[in-house]
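Saturday, quiet lab. Running sequence design on the structure tokens for the scaffold JK sent over.
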């Protein structure tokens, strides 16, 4: 019986885990570039362990970023799209589904979001140990359920050994 009580207490705690405990304010603001097209630029982009570009992406770890933005329209959901360019080749970088679901990674907020709402989105991007040690340009685009961007930025990075 005690096992079931513990399980009943632990499962909701794990399911409610999100980015609310991330202290992104200690991360440096990086000089992110705007994306191509008319996609909105975030107010600020912060990256953990990055004082200057190219930002190091340590193999076998997670790259953590925080994007401060203002919602341009009401939205019931948000999704992260990542494009990576390395060695002259651009390709989608598929995040794990639970990390691509951006509503789970809003700091001190949840979806649905409202136009004019100031938000902070935390992206934790896995950098696997098999990645080659190369420079990578990364585009992060936060889109809603109608495929409209709420914030898009580009950063220069370099995969480094751990």
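Result came back. Writing it out in full:
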């Amino acid at each position: 019986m005690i096992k079931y009580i513990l399980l009943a207490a632990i499962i909701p705690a794990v399911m409610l885990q999100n980015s609310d405990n991330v202290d992104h304010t200690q991360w440096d603001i990086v000089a992110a570039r705007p994306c191509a097209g008319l996609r909105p630029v975030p107010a600020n982009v912060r990256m953990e362990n990055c004082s200057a570009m190219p930002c190091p992406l340590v193999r076998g770890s997670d790259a953590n970023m925080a994007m401060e933005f203002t919602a341009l329209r009401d939205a019931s959901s948000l999704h992260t799209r990542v494009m990576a360019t390395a060695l002259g080749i651009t390709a989608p970088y598929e995040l794990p589904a639970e990390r691509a679901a951006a509503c789970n990674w809003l700091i001190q907020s949840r979806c649905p979001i409202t136009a004019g709402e100031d938000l902070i989105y935390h992206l934790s991007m896995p950098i696997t140990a098999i990645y080659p040690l190369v420079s990578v340009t990364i585009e992060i685009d936060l889109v809603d359920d109608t495929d409209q961007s709420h914030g898009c930025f580009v950063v220069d990075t370099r995969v480094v050994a751990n």
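Notes for JK: Residues 22 and 107 are 8 Å apart (CA to CA). The chain is about 10% helix and 40% strand. Ask whether to fix the surface positions before the next round.
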